[in-house]
Design a protein that fits this description.
With 163 residues, the chain is an alpha/beta fold. The chain is built from six helices and five strands. It has a five-stranded parallel β-sheet, with helices on one face. Strand 2 (63-71), helix 3 (75-84) and strand 3 (91-95) form a beta-alpha-beta unit.
Length: 163
C-alpha cells in the first residue's frame, strides 16, 4: 500500500539523461572496452540542461530519486557530481559492482520495489528498453532524448549490464 502522506517520487537516470557522457564514449568503442576509464571520466561529465531543468522542476512537487546503472564503486564520484550541479539531494540507487544484468531488468526491479510504498510520478531515462518496460509495467515515462544515442552505450546497457 502506497503512503499518500509523502510526496510522490520522480525517478531520474543519470548517464545521457542528466550527465552528458559523449566525451567518454571512446572508452567503450575499443576492444576490450575500458570500463575503468569510462567510469573514471564520469566526474567530468557536463550537465545536460534539459535534464537538469526537469529535475529542478520536478523537485517542486516530488521527492527526487536517482536510478543509475553505474556500479556502486562510482558512488562517491556520482554524489560529488550531483552536488556540483546543484541538484536536489535524493536517494541514489546504483548497480552492485558484480551485477551484469541488463539495465531494463535492474531498473524495473527497483521501480517496482519503490512503487510498493510510494507513488512514482515519473521515470526519466534515455534507455528505450528501460522506458518500454517501465511503461508496460504501468509507470509514466519521459524519454530523455536530448543527447545523441550511442550504439556502444546501448550495447553496454542491454547486453553487458555495465551501465
Amino acid at each position: 500500500m502506497t503512503d499518500s502522506s509523502k510526496r510522490p517520487l520522480a525517478v531520474f537516470d543519470l548517464d545521457n539523461t542528466l550527465a552528458d557522457t559523449a566525451h567518454r564514449q571512446r572508452f567503450l568503442e575499443r576492444r576490450p572496452r575500458d570500463w575503468d576509464g569510462f567510469f573514471a571520466a564520469a566526474p567530468e561529465d557536463p550537465p545536460i540542461p534539459e535534464g537538469i531543468a526537469l529535475v529542478l522542476e520536478s523537485a517542486e512537487e516530488c521527492e527526487i530519486v536517482y536510478l543509475t546503472g553505474r556500479p556502486e564503486r562510482c558512488r562517491r564520484d556520482t554524489l560529488a557530481w550531483l552536488g556540483a550541479q546543484g541538484l536536489p539531494e535524493g536517494r541514489v540507487y546504483m548497480r552492485r559492482n558484480d551485477d551484469r544484468r541488463p539495465a531494463r531488468r535492474t531498473k524495473l526491479e527497483i521501480l517496482k520495489q519503490l512503487a510498493r510504498t510510494r507513488e512514482i510520478r515519473v521515470l526519466v531515462d534515455d534507455d528505450e528498453l528501460v522506458c518500454e518496460d517501465a511503461e508496460r509495467a504501468g509507470f509514466t515515462v519521459v524519454r530523455a532524448r536530448w543527447t545523441a544515442p550511442s550504439a556502444a552505450l546501448e550495447v553496454a546497457q542491454e547486453r553487458e549490464g555495465r551501465t
